[in-house]
Structure formats: C-alpha cells, structure tokens
Write a structure and sequence with these properties.
Shape: globular
CATH superfamily: HAD superfamily/HAD-like
Organism: Diaporthe ampelina
Strand content: 5-15%
CATH class: Alpha Beta
Protein name: Putative had superfamily phosphatase
Radius of gyration: 16 Å
Low-confidence stretches: 1-5
Strand order of the largest sheet: 1-6-5-2-3-4
InterPro entries: HAD-like_sf, HAD_sf, PGP_Pase, PGPP1/Gep4
Mean pLDDT: 92
Largest sheet: 6 strands, parallel
Order of helices and strands: HEHEHEHEHEHEH
CATH topology: Rossmann fold
GO cellular component, one term: extrinsic component of mitochondrial inner membrane
GO biological process, one term: cardiolipin biosynthetic process
Oligomer: single chain
Length: 216
Amino acid sequence: MVVNFNLSASLNIFKLLSNPSLCLPHAAVSTFRDLPIPLDSAFRQKGVEVNIKAVVLDKDDCFAAPETNEVHQPYQEKFEALKAAYPGPRILIVSNTAGALSYDPKAKLASELEKATGVKVLSHQTKKPGCGAEIMEYFHSHPETGVSSPSQVAIVGDRLFTDMMLANTMGSYGLWIKDGVVPLQQKSIFSRMEQKLGPYLIARGYQPQDPGSPFE
C-alpha cells in the first residue's frame, strides 16, 4: 500500500504561517456545477481585465467523488461545457493521487482517469501546492494554448492548502469549490477546518495574492 504523504504541503506550511493570504481563493462557488463559463467572469472586479486561457482541475471532491474516476453525474453537463470552452491542452487535471509520481509511479491511475474524462492528467514529481513550475512547463510545451503567463491560468479545486495555495504561489487565479461532492460531515478534518479558516481570514482583512506576482 502506498502512503499518500504530501511533503510539498508540509514544507509550504511555513510560507502559509508567514503569509496566510496564500491559501485564499480569488473566487468561490458552491459546487462544480456552479462554475461560470468562461471562467474569466468569476474574477472580473474593479475593472481588472482577466484573460483565462487554460484551466487546471483538481479531481477528488471537485468534479468527482474521492477514489472514483467518473465525473459526478450532476456535473457532467458542466464538465463537457468546460471542455468545449477550453479544448485540448487548455484543460488539465492535476491531482495529488492520479499522476503524482510518488503515489502513481506507473501512471496507472492517470491513464484510467484520462480514459474516463477525456482530459489530460499531468504526471508530476512534486505534489500540490509545489508543482506550479511543472504545470507551466506543460502549457509552454503546448503553444497552441496561448498561455504565456501564470495569470492566464485558473486553478479550480476544493482545498485551500493545496489548490488555492498552488494558485497564489504560481501567480494564477484560484477558484474554490467550497462545498464539493462530499457532505461536510463526511469530509476530512482538514477540509472541515478550511471551511472555517477561509471566511475567518477574509474577515480579518486578508486577501489573495495578485495574479502574476507570486509570493516567494
């Protein structure tokens, strides 16, 4: 049995302690079904021009139930609409299970997920939130995406400490799936803690990083 230990998240906790804003989303929706298309509209505020050219999706409790590969049935129409809006290499799944080489070294889970969704799954050495460079390397290897800056990428996921911290540290936009597939009482203790932490930090005046200017 492979233990799914996340060294990247453990190391990045020190950044989070010094700058709690790193885990905050730029926008939030209740479930995957509530995503606006195009995603630009989720982030437009105060006259800021946003041009999202590619999207990175988490899997578990985002568009699928944990330990499954199929798109959650109520989200299937939205998933297909998102694929149509961001076709081919402009949509990418980045999971800390499928495609994470420390957990899925032979890419078996990644292959199964790609077959089930029709979306490329990134094989990555470093787990979220530390794989920003690998994500940008993928988009740069596909110039047809038009991605020239992390600020043209939206990260969609259910976790503040991985997905939203990934967005902030790489200079992208983070869209938090706040409620997801799994009922609150069945979520992990970390997920339940994040449900309270996000609103608490915002109430204390913290704001997410400006995309394009990642914290280092």
